[in-house]
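Model it.
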Amino acid sequence: YVFRVVIVVQQCDPGGARNRSRLILRLPASEKAVCPELVQSEPCLLNTTCFTYQYRVSDWSTCQLSEGAICGEGSRSRLLDCVRSDGKTVELQKCRQFGLINKLQLLESCVVDCPVSCILTDWSPWADCSHTCGTQGHSVRTRRILQEAHEEGRPCPSQLTQTKPCPIRPCYMWLLNGWSACTVEV
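Modeled.
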């Protein structure tokens, strides 16, 4: 006997059956010989005689930039697999074959922020001394943050105020004695 076997594989329908058939290509030479059955059937058993298929997509990759770039626009991607119900990864064509239409986006644009260093104002002029004499006087100057650091840029310093002592100057007090008696000048 010469047979051509045709296997019809369908997406698994537990409780259903799958069939295969064969065609007689040449009749037996003896009339007493009987051809075996032309159609065979067996129940559909998930992960044994039949499988279901589904797409599995990976997480997004990191943002890929053009060669030599450290920031700016780029693209990121994710991978697509076709997974059989028993967990085995199979060729993508299997998922397409069963009408699992791929509507997943696998490539998209992204942006890597460019590093920005902290930007500060210039120091203000030194303020007047807090005391005009003695050793306790000090002068202060300040600056402000105009732009906070971003990404890998140089961070802002924690000190935005500077203080310095003032030159030591002696403090004088005038001591006045009481008034003298009034005198008349002639």
